[in-house]
Amino acid sequence: MSYRQQPILTSQVGQQSVYRSQSPIRNSQISYKYRGVQGMIDAIRNAIQANRIDLASLFNRWTSNGDGTLTIQNLYELLNSFCVVSDLTTTNIFNQVDENRNGRMDYDEFRRLFDVTYGEYTVYNFISQLKDAHQDYTRRGQSIWKQFNFDGNGTLDISEFKVLALAVKPNLQDWQIRQFFNHFDSRGAGELTVVDFEKTILA
Predict the structure, then answer these.
(1) Which of 19, 103, 168, 171 has the fewest CB atoms within 10 Å, i.e. the most exposed one?
(2) pLDDT tier for residue 107 given thresholds of 50, 70 and 90
């Protein structure tokens, strides 16, 4: 079965062609250079990362059925915006994550293929858990900010933030805590105000 309903030409895909033009593997026959399905996945994953392409935006741009999923045809067109990918390779890639064989790839399945951080605990996982904790405190009429602002000076330094972070996720490493702190500290002030804190967890 062929998924080539129409030729995938730059002039036909409009804004979608941005991924083709930006990709460092554009026009390269990576199906020959990167042998095997996993090699193809790795090559496209690297292109996404190298070009700082937002994964959610890429996924959403190629969904066409209105239910927030990709069909094999959608995936074929998406992959071929980076390089030449055969029907068979597309099917093999699709089947790696379509475990229930419903012919649809949702965003989480897409991330399993192309997100280099999938399965890792990232700042976004931390923020999600922190939001839940913030809501729990709010329901009890308390402030999570005040709870961990031990000296009452209106800011959280890295030591206070560490206690907060370990309360949310007890097995965090020091380098992760510093990384998360820097994400909140967008001003580079070395301390977090309640504004820094809330603009991140209330976003």
Answers:
(1) 171
(2) confident
